[in-house]
Amino acid sequence: MPRVVPVIGTQSPGNYLTGALWTASVKAMSDWLLGSGTNGVPRFRGRQASVQSIADNTWTPLTLDTEDFDSDNGHSTSTNTSRYTIQVAGTYAITGMVSFAANATGNRAGRITVNGTAVPGSFVKGLAATATHSSGAAFHAQAVLAVGDYIELQGLQTSGGALNTSSATDVACAMGVWWLGG
Fold first, then answer.
1. 30-87: per-residue pLDDT in tens?
2. What is the C-alpha to C-alpha distance for residues 69 and 22, in angstroms, rounded to an integer?
3. What confidence tens digit (pLDDT) does each residue in 111-125 have?
4. Sequence-ordered strand ranges (E) for the chain
5. Residue 148: left (phi > 0), alpha (psi -120 to 50), or beta?
6. Helix residue ranges per DSSP H, 12-134
7. R_g (Cα) of the chain, nearest Å
């Protein structure tokens, strides 16, 4: 069952602040905003630790085989590994990083999708680096999402053939998802 955002109850003037009222309202909201684990706001960061082959000129969902954190278990490293599935409805900040192995031909691009559809304004494209240096692009978007919606990071390259992503520790495909508000 998905978590829900706590609601601070309203009280009539003259009511006393009891321990039960404090726990139900103020403490619950504080735990939600400042807590850790499943007590905080939903948040996720996943990345590639293994390279992925990307076909030429084809938008491809990028697999995320490593989780740095996942407060609500919205991602799996064994099933639909490119997806983060929303567990708490609201507005989210989404960051993405695509990185490709060294190749001096063509362009590199990335975007964020929700349920397979590109998020407007999330697309970014760059030229290939050099034959000896990897290339990457970072991008960001916000989206209003419902429980069950899924987010993916997609990559595109036009080198003329298949090209691997980069999975170095500091140059790797990665996605971050943070709940901003209801």
1. 777 777 666 788 999 999 999 999 999 999 999 999 999 999 999 999 999 999 999 9
2. 30
3. 999 999 999 989 888
4. 43-47, 53-54, 60-61, 66-70, 83-85, 90-100, 107-114, 117-118, 124-127, 135-145, 150-157, 163-164, 174-181
5. left
6. 19-22, 28-34
7. 20
